[in-house]
Amino acid sequence: QVQLVESGGGVVQPGRSLRLSCAASGFTFSRFAMHWVRQAPGKGLEWVALISFDRSIESYADSVKGRFTISRDNSKKTLYLQMNSLRSEDTAVYYCARGYYDSSDNWFDPWGQGTLVTVSS
Amino acid sequence: QSALTQSPSASGSPGQSVTISCTGTSSDVGGYNSVSWYQQHPGKAPKLMIYEVNKRPSGVPDRFSGSKSGNTASLTVSGLQAEDEADYYCSSNAGRYNFVFGTGTKVTVL
């Protein structure tokens, strides 16, 4: 079955970096756009970033633009999120979610189980 | 990229219907026929319930329906069941490759 498994979360100090990974299985990873979505503790969902199936398109929320970089390795069926210059407001559960064939489609399904990132000194 | 506005809570008794609204602007909800809705149970990942305003993915009960008028989208859950108690989020394009979620609505089954 389609499965997404995130890893790489943890506690990190403000200003430091962290890289998240999302391992995909059960579908042809190289054909789908992928997203990162986060959820601060007790708060709502916030879209973070998108990458197209062929890496030709990257898009970011204003809140992370210039600090976060989304990437993918289709040969390893893995999605990444490089997070630099982390701030306390980046503390959240980070989910990866499969998009659709067309990167512009508003479609997030399925989702991984999430990985918690805590930014604290 | 301001979050779409949803009422914080909604409730209904088993068997009744509840409707959740999601209000945006002409730059997001009103400008695209791409509103989607997600159900999230506590401690779980969200699940897609409606896409492209009113389409249901395979496996989603037909008790869930969506609609849109102008800058406001709605999700209706008919024949409420205990397992429908969850948080619900809407989402829309806010640009060709930009997306925005709603503030979320907690649905309680009385």
- Class of secondary structure makeup of chain A: mainly beta
Structural class of chain B: mainly beta
User: N-to-C SSE series of chain A?
Assistant: EEEEEEEEEE
Q: What distance separates the N and C termini of chain A?
A: 40 Å
What structural keywords apply?
heterodimer, A: mainly beta, four-stranded antiparallel beta sheet, globular, B: 110 residues, mainly beta, 0% helix, 45% strand
Description:
- The complex is a heterodimer of chains A (121) and B (110).
- Chain A is mostly beta strands and 121 residues long.
- Chain A is 0% helix and 46% strand.
- In chain A, the strands form two sheets. Chain A has a six-stranded mixed β-sheet, with no helix packed on it.
- Chain A is globular and about 40 Å long.
- Chain B has strands spanning 5-6, 9-12, 18-23, 36-40, 47-50, 64-69, 72-77, 86-93, 99-101, 105-109.
- In chain B, strands 2, 4, 5, 8, 9 and 10 form a six-stranded mixed β-sheet that branches.
- Classes of the chains: A mainly beta (121), B mainly beta (110).
- The interface between A and B is medium-sized, with 25 and 28 residues.
Write the layout of secondary structure elements.
The complex is a heterodimer of chains A (121) and B (110).
Chain A: E1 3-7, E2 10-12, E3 18-25, E4 34-39, E5 45-51, E6 58-60, E7 68-73, E8 78-83, E9 92-98, E10 115-119
Parallel strand pairs in A: 2-10
Antiparallel strand pairs in A: 1-3, 3-8, 4-5, 4-9, 5-6, 7-8, 9-10
Chain B: E1 5-6, E2 9-12, E3 18-23, E4 36-40, E5 47-50, E6 64-69, E7 72-77, E8 86-93, E9 99-101, E10 105-109
Give a summary of the structure in a few sentences:
Chain A has 121 residues and is mainly beta.
